[in-house]
Amino acid sequence: MKWKRPLAMAGVVLILSIYVIAIISAFSHNPEAKNWLTAAIFSSVVLPIFLYAAQLAARVIRQNKKEPDSSEKSREH
After folding, report:
1. Which of 12, 25, 19 is nearest to 51 (CA)?
2. Which of 29, 32, 41, 60 is the most exposed place for a label (fewest CB within 10 A)?
3. Percentage of the residues of the chain whose pLDDT score is greater than 70
4. DSSP-based three-state secondary structure for 60
């Protein structure tokens, strides 16, 4: 549980740094500014969805490992 907070902060820093790069490139009249803005918007939508899906999958896999197989249950009774 202690690793969730630092990981969340790293994600926030990553997304914010992408936005800062987009803003800096827009003010410097960089021709790639539109691509950086697109990447920032894409990242702020897709990264949290991906991380939530990974967390959900890890939770399901962890629950499956804790439950004994049905064949083991029948042997116990």
Report:
1. 12
2. 29
3. 83
4. helix
Name, in order, each residue with C-beta under 8 angstroms of 22's C-beta and a sequence gap of 6 or more: 33, 36, 37, 39, 40
Question: Number of C-alpha atoms within 13 angstroms, CB side, residue 57?
Answer: 6
Helices (H), 1-77: 4-27, 33-66, 70-76
Q: How many CB atoms lie within 10 A of CB 36?
A: 19
One-letter identity of residue 52 = Y
Residues 60 and 23: their CA atoms lie apart, in Å, by 39
d(CA 40, CA 25): 12
pTM, rounded to two decimals: 0.56
Q: Which of 4, 38, 40, 35 is nearest to 20 (CA)?
A: 40
pLDDT > 90 in the chain, percent = 0
